[in-house]
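Running co-folding for D-malate.
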Amino acid sequence: MSIRTQTIGSVELAFVDSGEGTPVLLIHGFPLDHAMWSAQIDALGAHYRVIAPDLRGFGASGVTPGKVTMEQFADDLAALVDALGIGGPVVVCGLSMGGYVAWQLWRRHARRVRALILCDTRAAADTPEVAAGRLETAERVLREGPGLLVPAMMPKLLAPSSAAARPELAEALGRVIERTDPQGIAAALRGMAERPDVTATLAAITCPTLVVVGNEDAISPPQEMGAIARAIPGARLVEIDGAGHLSPVENPEQVNAAMLEFLAAL
Ligand code: MLT
């Protein structure tokens, strides 16, 4: 899987571009990188053109310190799709923070969006307490390094059953987090803290939409994602067995089957 780079404004974005056909853009969660989509890059890449970027500040992409909003991430990706010469709309698939970016792609670049796949994400904004906690965490990560996120986040990312059955998952995710630039993490935390509540806009989504959630997701639980699916006209909800917040990583077989069925019907 070779990584390419493309300069977008002042930043160089790294991405995988694999396969041919309808383009599918895979947007990773926080504080990860494109590698969380490895199983989807393989399975979807056999039938579609899969583009899996590292968002600004993550993975091998360039870092801009300060704050990066979800709107900025979305604009980066719209510019990347343009730079790749993709004239038509793309299927936009985002997990968690990637879902926050997907909402903004729909709101700001709707003509670029063929369909939406929302995995383990939220439409609601942060409460003031959660937002304040993110700002504090941003400062701590800058002082102490990204490693402090590993014990704090891992129990919330993976379902207990998948963490126990596949200890290598937590190890690999931990390594990704530890090598992420603290400035990139802090900038995304500040951006997430001020992201808008998009609940009221869900009813206006007109493209085909698939909603995917791990049945043990503790961050964006099935009940909350069910409400998102009911609010989007015609959206389909698929619950993934034995998976927490990272359903595409924890149960790739079920997630890939749901995505391939959805994509084939477009
Ligand atoms: C993610 O997985 O991207 C994070 O859980 C998003 C968040 O912190 O809200």
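Result summary
The radius of gyration is 17 Å.
The mean pLDDT is 97.
Job closed.
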